[in-house]
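<derive_structure_tokens>
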Amino acid sequence: MKFAPLPAVVVAVALSIPLGTRAHEDEQIPTGTPDRVGDVVFPVSCSPAAQEQFNRAMAMLHSFFYPEAGKTFARAADLDPSCAMAHWGVAMSWWYPLWYPPTKESFLQGKAALDKAAALGTGSERERAYIAALAQFYGDFDKVDHKSRSLAYEKAMAGVHARFPDDREAATLYALALQATANPNDKTYANQLKSAEILETVFGEQPDHPGAAHYLIHAYDYPELAPRALTAARRYGAIAPAMPHALHMPSHTYIALGLWQDSIESNLAAGAVARKLGWVQEELHTMDYLVYAYVQGAQPGAAKGVLVKLGEIAVDEKARTLPVDYALAAAPARFVLEQRRWADAASLVPHASRFRASEALTHYARALGATHLGATRDAEEQVGKLTQIRDALLQAKQDYWAKQVDVQVQTAQAWLAWATGNAAQALELMRAAVTLEESTYKHPITPGQLLPARELLGDLLMEVGQPRRALAEYETSLRLNPNRFNGLYGAARSAELSGMPDKAALYYRKLLDLCKAADGEREEVLQAKLFLSSL
């Protein structure tokens, strides 16, 4: 019995939005005057008026509203030309620790601001410590790599935190530095847990601190740790409702826990505020998360509506960042892959991007689509393109992204082997892809892989007639990715074919419960209703 293919839908998804090459030094966020941004008290040696602006800027910085934070730090400097820490704040605003390294131009902008802070000087030992710590990051751009500079800053901030243990801003920034330098292959999450321990203290003392809530969600942004973030997730949006990222970030936790409606509400709110502020990057980012959540609840109509809006957004070349290019590639790929619309997946249009891992997403979707259609030559071509991208990322020393694309290469090769009749090789390659994917972590930029590798292993086992083994893989995948539509259906169907009606009924009921807000009838839902009606 064929398991994966579903009926084709007439309307194909193809977004044709040109991609550019600008990085974040040109990012423009035309804002008005954001209102509630959270409570931060960071005493510095500046005038009262400058201090007020400085605190506000720090609150924005903690919600990753970098360009506006930089402008607000600059206003503090205008109000008090002797305020060295205002220039330190401008320098902090040119570095996005959890997102991606600064370009050389961004780096030089930040370094110029920090040099001005150092030149102005300050009588405060504590403030000099902050400036000296950031100088460890703003070293020699051409001679010291980003990772080494980040580690040097983390070590320096550890010293600031130790010297001023009652300074909650030092604690919060040190906690963020620990996350920025975490080893992506360390599944003990040593840095993240150390960071969380610090942040839990700050959050307990200052429940309206935006950084404490925000960074706690990041610290626990892993399947095994996500339940610990729920309190911070429920709180963060109320702390800083004027900040799009504060409204969006809780959805990281909701997705990890399979709370799809919570994620939808979180991203609808974030997108609305981002649109009001003109922050294209964050608006597109929320759209990728919305598509992901909508398709889990069998709401393809709502998901398609998001894609239509995404296609209507005019993306200025100056707004080209990794989150922008990633969302533009990921959202349409998710829409078709999650629904097993293989013909639409095979016809997606790839667009060149300076962020090659984003470009790979479309080639990966095309490869999976082609294999399921039996178009092996097309699949081989896409595997070749993925291999080239992986090798280019390795050469560029972007090891994390190279590993992500390597998972895609191995997965596509597995399904290509299946399409050409080599089941044994297909399973071997798919298991290798699972091992590789689960040895690393989910990047904060994405709500999740386009399709979890272990879930795809379950699909492959179903295709080769091994439903009992498939059930074990689906159940393991659901522990890592709870309440996924395809995971629940796969578990139900494999249990049904394995002669386990009680377990099949359990998963079919969960699937139907997931689809209470469905805006279309999927074949899998009809199968669930048919099975349950026969009991």
Remarks:
- The two ends are 22 Å apart (CA to CA).
- The mean pLDDT is 92.
- Residues 399-419 form the longest helix (21 residues).
